[in-house]
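New to this. Explain these tokens.
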Amino acid sequence: MDAIAILQQLDQECNTWANQHAHSCNLLASLLNITRQREQTLVQLQQQQQQEQQRSVSNTQPASSLVPLTPSSTSKPALVAVKSLLQLIHKQTLEIESVVQQLYDTVAVFQRVVQAMVQLERQVEAAIERIEPSKLLATIRASPPSSSSSLSPSSTPKKSYAFEPSLVETAEIAPLDVLDWVARIRAMYTQELNLKQAQIHPGMTALERFESLADLQRSWGLQKQIDFGLEQEIVERIKAYRRVREFSSRT
């Protein structure tokens, strides 16, 4: 089993998620902005309609109590304004629906990332099942600490061996460690995916969801279910292995 290749693929999936997450944060910012604009437009429409109603009431009063008004100079501009506001609201609603659909598409990418992690986990499990138990136990006993500093080419292993392994062998990652990393990463991204799927829904297009959208934007960006320290640990371990390989190739 090529542990480094598997961890690199896992890291690539994490990067794919990160890129999509940044895109989704931009989408949420746009959604919040458009929703705020539509809210303001609806207020303007309501005010315009109230003014039109007041004009209608005034026009029904006795002529002796009113200053003569030309109907075309009062009602027509108001109707044009109302029509323009309705068209603007329709446009803003379409924009909101488009952004929400893009968020659904982003969640679909998140789903594919998690599915790829599930496949990686199954791949590692299958590879471990093919390893003889004695060899698997040997990799556990010989597995070095996870800290990348202990894998520096200039460091001296503290543990003594009856048969001293090479520096590259010391830097290699045990299959069970790989499985543990993949399983933990897959689990936390699955939890984050479940949370995000529950947060994206058609009701987001409703005006009364504005405050909830602001809360969603804040919680969405936190990604509380994801331990980025664990991801960094994997990246550092890959870097350490590469440094050891490079050092060994020159000696």
Summary: Helices lie at 3-59, 71-129, 133-142, 167-171, 175-199, 210-222, 228-250.
